[in-house]
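Sequence in, structure out.
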Amino acid sequence: MSLKRVTRFFTVALAGCMLFTGCGKINTSAKLITVQNGDKTETITLGYGNFVARYNQALYDVYYGSYMGEDMWTTDMMGTGATMEADTKESVIEELENWYVEKQNAADYNVSLSDEDTMAIEEAAKKFMSDNSEAAIEQIGATEEYVKQLLTDRTYAVRMEEAIRKEAEGKVEVTDAEAKQATISYLQFDKADAAASTADAVVDAVNDIENGEEPSNKSEEALADAKKAAAAADFDAADTAVDVDADTFSYNPDDKAEDVDGMPAEVIEAAKSLSEGQMSDVIETDSAYYVIRLDSKLDKVATASRKQELQEEKVTKYYEDILKGYKDKLTFTVDEKNWEKVKFEERFTNGASEASDENDVTEEVLNGEEVDLNE
């Protein structure tokens, strides 16, 4: 991703922002994170932390605010038990700590910035400050130095991750036994106790009563459909005999049935007794009835796909472990009292038509993808 595109994104995202309320003042030189490395002590300032946090807020406000609503920052959007503001600020602290150790240890992976890189960053920062309104600059807490620091930190971080992941690819291994996959096709018939908790089931029952009919018994209907499917000549005929769509599921046949995620143990246990192409009788679980067919004891396509997934998981863990090793040598102390002063009370707005062509850049920035300084 070129600096030209990133700078343009900054401009589109923030130029013309409107303040819904006044900006609260903070002591930008106050300590946010203290880093203790043996006898050496360094700090990350509240001003920089505030800028990174408000920059993240601006991205979400401008591009996703209309979908999430006006109360998104005070609502538990992620299901974590905390507000989205608290979740975002927590991720910013982790990001700042990661950036610190990645830049400090960049020499381990021959990662550096050239003079040309530094000059490009300086030019981008100046352009950002000149292209944005005073209101937007004030609201996001931006300074030229903060913008340069952000671009520098993110570039080091992405280049370090790429270098570490490249190293990992030559070290981690996924065995055939780990990746092995069997595949079943299945028809699922939900019981009443699973459906009764939904509003639709209640409405159906009320409608039946109002029409002078007995409320339908979903469990009996599900069992009847499952028996009808199981009695079909083959699975393809079963699929057309009932109003239920067939689906497929792949799993490692060497795993214990209860350890397979995403499918009840009773179904996996039944699949283990089938030969390829064979269809099961009705299988009952707590919430549904199933009829299945064992499609393949060793699905080569699913196995290859799973091998790639496991490779990616192991490479990611390798990167995370390297990062954790660096961080474990240091002590990070967050000044929670100062961090509490950073709030997302003012909202960022912008015309959707202006920003629509930069959504791809937004995703890249949110995902921490590299700022290509050579373009």
